[in-house]
Design a protein that fits this description.
CATH class of the largest domain: Alpha Beta
Low-confidence stretches: none
Mean pLDDT: 86
Strand content: 15-25%
Number of helices: 13
Distance between the termini: 54 Å
Order of helices and strands: HEEEHEEHEHEHEHEHEHHHHHHEEEE
Structural class: alpha/beta
Radius of gyration: 36 Å
Shape: elongated
Helix content: 40-55%
Largest sheet: 5 strands, mixed, barrel
CATH topology of the largest domain: Rossmann fold
């Protein structure tokens, strides 16, 4: 068996953890210890219980969304994903949201239902329907007179104004909301829409709880129509999001994900028109050249080409040719008409083939763009992670690593008269501790 480098082993473990659906957006309950807010805005701490402990990181972008302060000793429910920090090989929980454990019952209910439906296959990609390329008949299920409704209308008008969309006002909060949403979905599903948008503006977990209903999950799973959700904000996930064919971070994000940009479509149509005109012109020119070459043959240019070998037959052929010549002049208009009909037939054939080519081109272009966008997001995410995890990037800002011997130590491990080594970005310093300030 070939040997692995340390990096290869750690990197393999990291990818294995990140590909495990049970370790993504999981809910962990524990007590905060060693809480520290870095000058970068990131939060570093541990979650522990009476039997285990795990290191945690909450990046600044998520920390800014917290609605309350946290400290050592707080019992919390944290939502996040498990991975490995490759530089140190340490297992970490990367937290996207965190709340005090006082509302833990809702989180526990959410996680239990999520695990149940996951095992039953309701989240499997195999059952998800393909998004329509150019949807023109769309149903929008949204709260009546809500900000989300106003935003959706503006987004349709700006981005895809040719779409025919119908608004279905519906309760999106409260005990009666799940049943009303289910009833509306069943009605809409029978009306032949190309897509359904189910959306709601942001709010707390309690505000969005209607979308964590088990019966609603099964109703979404059974839909014949493609459905996209835009519920809450980017950090909010509901059961409805997991079951839907596609999930967008916001109501307007759902419209952006579902519809093309009208300006891009106009450009594609103009390009297709230019290609078709060019193809028709080239086809006509080719046929005119063939016709000219045909008319230049001796049989058409020399009237008596075949007569010289015939004696007695000569007068007959001459009279025959003269007769044909007269008839040809008389039917000149008929020939021109036939020529126009021929060109029209050719153009119609070209148009059919060009339409087929355009359809294939659009399909290939859409798949290519989708794949390119996915690769772009993957590359950006990996670049951001690489920069964030690069220890030299942190040292360059003026920070230092503290070594005792050949081991990096924490603040609480420093003792008086210790010989310490400070590693800066471009230099190393040896110091001796005297006393703690």
């Amino acid at each position: 068996m070939a040997s692995l480098s340390v990096y290869e082993l750690v990197h393999y473990l990291k990818l294995s953890l990140e590909s495990n659906d049970n370790l993504r957006n999981c809910i962990v309950e524990g007590e905060i210890s060693n809480f520290h807010r870095h000058s970068s805005g990131h939060l570093y701490f541990s979650l522990k219980d009476d039997r285990a402990k795990i290191s945690c990181v909450m990046f600044k972008s998520n920390a800014l969304k917290l609605t309350q302060a946290f400290k050592d000793g707080d019992k919390v429910l944290a939502k996040g994903s498990v991975s490995i920090f490759e530089n140190s090989g340490s297992l970490q929980l990367y937290i996207s949201d965190m709340k005090l454990a006082g509302i833990g019952d809702l989180y526990r209910q959410f996680e239990l239902l999520r695990q149940k439906l996951f095992k039953l296959g309701l989240f499997d990609s195999s059952h998800k329907q393909k998004k329509p390329l150019y949807p023109l008949k769309i149903a929008v299920i949204v709260g009546d007179k809500s900000a989300a409704l106003s935003d959706v209308k503006k987004k349709f008008k700006k981005r895809w104004p040719i779409a025919s969309y119908d608004i279905y006002p519906c309760l999106v909060q409260g005990e009666d909301a799940p049943q009303e949403i289910i009833k509306t979905l069943k009605i809409v599903d029978e009306k032949g829409y190309e897509a359904i948008v189910l959306c709601r503006g942001g709010g707390s977990i309690e505000d969005l709880w209607a979308f964590n209903d088990e019966a609603l999950a099964y109703a979404i799973y059974d839909l014949k129509t493609f459905i996209i959700t835009g519920i809450g904000h980017e950090q909010d996930f509901t059961i409805a999001d997991f079951v839907a064919d596609e999930r967008a971070p916001t109501p307007t994000g759902a419209i952006e994900a579902l519809t093309p940009e009208i300006k891009d479509v106009k450009i594609k149509l103009m390009e297709a028109k230019n290609r078709l005109n060019k193809a028709v012109y080239l086809k006509v020119e080719l046929n005119l050249t063939k016709l000219k070459n045909l008319l230049d043959r001796p049989l058409f240019k020399e009237k008596y080409y075949l007569i010289n070998s015939k004696g007695q037959y000569l007068d007959y052929l001459i009279s025959k040719l003269l007769h044909y010549k007269l008839k040809l002049n008389q039917n000149k208009n008929d020939i021109l008409l036939l020529k126009r009909e021929l060109i029209k037939h050719i153009n119609d054939h070209i148009s059919d083939q060009a339409q087929r080519v355009d359809n294939l081109y659009d399909l290939m272009s859409e798949r290519f763009k989708k794949n390119l966008l996915t690769r772009h997001y993957d590359l950006k995410r990996l670049r951001d992670l690489l920069i964030a995890y690069d220890v030299n990037h942190i040292l360059k800002k003026g920070y230092a690593l503290v070594y005792k011997g050949d081991k990096i130590i924490k603040e609480e491990e420093i003792k008086k008269d210790d010989e310490l080594l400070l590693k800066l970005y471009q230099s190393k310093w040896s110091i001796k501790t005297l006393k703690k300030e």
